[in-house]
Amino acid sequence: MPQKFYITTAIHYVNDDPHIGHMYENIVADVIARHRRRMGDDVYFLTGTDEHGQKIERAAAKEGILPIELADRVVKTHHDIDRRLNISYDDFIRTSEPRHRLGVFELIRRIQERIPDDIYLGEHSGWYCQSEETFIPENQVHDGKDDSDHSVEWTTESNLFFKLSRYTEPLLEHYRRNPDFVFPPTRMNEVRSFVEQGLKDLSISRTSISWGIPFPGFRDHVIYVWMDALTNYISALGFGSGDHARYDRYWPADVHLIGKDIVRFHAVYWPAFLMAAGLPLPKRIVGHGFWLRDNLKISKSLGNVVRPYNILDDFGADSLRYFLVREMTFGNDQNYSDEGFLTRYNADLANDLGNTLSRAIKMSDSYFGGKTPPIPCDDNELIRASREVIPEYLRAMDDFAFQRAMDAVFRFLVAVNGYIVSREPWKHFKEKGPDEALSRIIWNTLESLRLIWVMMAPIMPTVAREALSRLGADPDAIGAEALAWGGLSNNMPVKVADAIFPRADVAAYIGTHPAIAEKKSGEQPVEESKPSPPAQTTAPAEEIAKEQPPHSGPPIETTQAVPPGIAKVSIDQFMEIDLRVAEVRAAERVPKSKKLIKMTVFDGGSERTLVAGIATKYAPEDLVGRKVVIVANLQPAKLMGIESNGMVLAASIDGEPSLLAVDPSVPAGTKVK
Ligand code: MSP
After folding, report:
1. Is CB count within 10 Å lower at the N or C end of the chain?
2. How far apart are CA 626 and CA 650, in angstroms?
């Protein structure tokens, strides 16, 4: 029987349309769910909406409508965005549904039954934050504001209380026994320190609002929104209903995926409620970081809420999915900009993944009559590379390190490109025709790309299907068994088609398509944002085959720009060199070398190590913070035992290096061409 895997997102408030934070969370959960599913787990993926509480009541009152009317309207936009983002949830719960109410009642009933004084009526005074709907501890209030800059008011209420203080020690004990309970570890430490200060009892009812679930036995009270909302994770499984088969199968949750701002509710209150009710605790609380705009938290009041619906319209769900997952180091915060999206889209998708795919398919198409080559290969450097990359990718996916997973895939892609360049299949074809050696070269290339797209499938499910079918592979074969070398059949039809990721014209796009869309713009892409031919595709294989090798043939026809004696390269050959701006993050001399400096540079996506022969001119400390131009897709080389991944460009004046200057405002990762 397959292993069960229950993953949930936070349920999102319905006081407003979904924004980038909601989209990101559902995408990440979807990537995990799709990955676990294809690895053979029995996945149950839950998302939904949080519809009770003051926030919704106020937002509805502002519009002069009932809270449920607001919820019904906004939930549609959540469904619409989830559908467009291809979120493969198994269930979507709304806290306004009767099944949820049953679950909440049952949780309270169990707590009251097990330990009667865990819930008691009392009076409470304290600093109440309306925005967060919670009392804020004295030491977190300064000048009438809490740590998140929300206003707080001194409030006295007669409420029902939950004896949270009783759970201080049991929770600490749980954290001791399960140090991975909260991920990443920094968040675990924050939670632990908070609990170590001692927990106060928690007010779990409100008399000031009416939009909520009535507290059983206390007519004037509605249940505190967090107690209500957290219970969705079990009410959705049928807890409290007549049919609890799904609860029995899937609870406890394997992952509650949430933003860092609500870790405390999930790692302190929720397990305490469950302990009180005698129910098992979730296995893991996983907190992601925040999408920011110009380093600021996005908020309605600042007017900087990011809704990248424009990108979704114009570049499709998979490009946005890839960008959000790839750009953010999981757990950290990250700025969003359309420019950032477009830079990465062009570099990683249009250029690296897209061009390599069309190039390889065109070669197979023209050398082997529209088919995958007839002879496979089971001993070559790409197999060895795949055997390193795939386990690394799988480990990274398990560690929520999606960036690392993508790095591994792209390293493999660099190896594939290096393989193509070193084997020169176009030359081979010209000289020897489609012989066995050429069959192996092209088959290896296609097989490597198949593996790459199988790895990409959870992140870009639709494009992966298309890429796999273009490669002559089975688009449905993306399971664990497809992650092994040798899956591509021989003599299968390949499909030459338009660029899978048409190149974007960044300058034309910016300015015409607002990055901050309060509502979907509905605009169509402007003409200029259509693919620009030279960079969009690599030359067809026939043209590659026709290419003159450098330094051969009759005297080169010269122009002013190309001095005699220097071989010309085609635009496609030039585009194969991935020149990028990178930022030097660290630098040190290589011991026992007069010339070499080892640098850590940030290439816009990740950090890499480079070794450069520039120590005669530059001191390491002068390099840190400087922008340089690097050849990003150079095959790694070892210099004095250090692996160098790329090359820094410098002019050489009588052997003395002079680094190319880059305008410091150009972001790391920008392509140089
Ligand atoms: N309704 C509560 C959650 C209850 S779960 C039992 C809530 N809703 S929310 O709509 O405000 O947030 C939903 C999720 O989106 C949360 O996990 C939150 O952390 C996340 N994000 C909200 N803004 C975000 C960003 N700017 N960036 C990334 N995620 C963020 O909290």
Report:
1. N
2. 13
Bridge partner residues of 242 (DSSP): none
- Boundary-marking domain end, from 457, 474, 503: 503
Q: Which of 20, 23, 262 to mutate to test the pocket of ligand 1 (most atoms within 8 A of CB)?
A: 262
Compute the distance from residue 331 Cα to the ligand 1 centre, in Å.
14
Q: Is residue 212 part of a domain?
A: no
For 372, which DSSP code?
Answer: -
The number of the ligand 1 atom at minimal distance from the alpha carbon of 10 is: 5
pLDDT at 399: 97
Residue 668 has pLDDT above 90, yes or no: no
What's the DSSP call for residue 269?
A: I
CA of 288 to the centre of ligand 1 (A): 10
- CA torsion sign for 20, 21, 26, 29 is positive
Range of the domain at 604: 571-672
Query: Are the C-beta atoms of 318 and 642 separated by less than 8 Å?
Result: no
Q: Give yes or no for residue 132 having a pLDDT over 70.
A: yes
Query: Which of 133, 290, 300 has most ligand 1 atoms within 8 Å of CB, for mutation?
Result: 290
pLDDT of residue 572: 62
The total domain count for the chain is 2
In a domain, 29, yes or no: no
What CATH number has the domain bearing residue 600?
Answer: 2.40.50.140
Task: Label residue 339 exposed, middle or buried (CB < 10 Å: 0-12, 13-18, 19+).
Answer: middle
- Indicate the top mutation candidate among 19, 49, 50 to test ligand 1's pocket, ranked by most ligand atoms within 8 A of CB: 50
pLDDT tops 70 at residue 557: no
What is the tens place of the pLDDT at every residue in 603-647?
A: 888 889 999 989 888 888 888 889 999 999 888 888 888 888 999
pTM score: 0.77
Q: Is the peptide bond before 184 cis (omega within 30 degrees of 0)?
A: yes
Residue 274's Cα: distance from chain center in Å?
31
**CA of 1 relative to ligand 1 center, distance in Å:** 34
Closest to 158 in 3D by CA, of 189, 204, 194, 122: 122
> Residue 135 has what pLDDT?
77
- Among the listed residues 226, 224, 207, the one whose alpha carbon sits nearest the alpha carbon of residue 156: 207
